[in-house]
Specification:
With 147 residues, the chain is an alpha+beta fold. 30% of the residues lie in helices and 25% in strands. The chain has a 5-stranded antiparallel sheet with strand order 1-2-3-5-4, with helices on one face.
């Protein structure tokens, strides 16, 4: 499902966190990402920001909010996904406001797109997952600086 790599000989390690029913799911989701990835990958801060944006979007743009967070460490990548019970994936798109430097909101998925190798929406049996695939190696700042 969330596996974005080719080798069929290994099984990625997936961590789950239930977010349903939490009044404030963003901070615990950030903490879980830090705990799972600390000392394992250099891209912890990138992953924390991406998950913060994805959970925040699920809180703001869905009726029920996020169901769960998955963090998958798979070879040279980290795959994070925020699941929610609403199947309408057409509502998940880059905002035109992201291009406006004076806009007060609308940059979340732009940040996700900038930090991740790729992101996509996946229909699930109970709704959808917004998935971001991050490189396990250098952080986005390091990649941009060429170091």
């Amino acid at each position: 499902m969330l596996n974005d790599s080719n080798p069929a000989s290994h099984r990625p390690h997936t961590h789950w966190m239930v977010l349903a029913g939490r009044c404030e799911p963003i901070a615990p989701a950030r903490d879980r990402v830090r705990t799972v990835l600390a000392g394992v990958v250099p891209c912890v801060d990138d992953a924390v920001l991406v998950v913060s944006e994805l959970v925040g979007n699920a809180v703001r743009h869905t009726t029920a909010g996020p169901d769960c967070l998955t963090i998958e460490i798979d070879g040279d990548q980290v795959v994070v996904a925020v699941h929610d019970p609403e199947p309408d994936d057409a509502r998940v798109h880059l905002s035109e406001a992201a291009a406006d430097p004076l806009a007060e909101s609308g940059r979340g998925l732009w940040l996700v797109q900038t930090l991740a190798r790729r992101w996509y929406v996946e229909t699930t049996a109970v709704g959808k997952a917004v998935v971001a695939v991050l490189p396990r190696g250098k952080t986005a700042v390091s990649r941009a600086a060429g170091s």
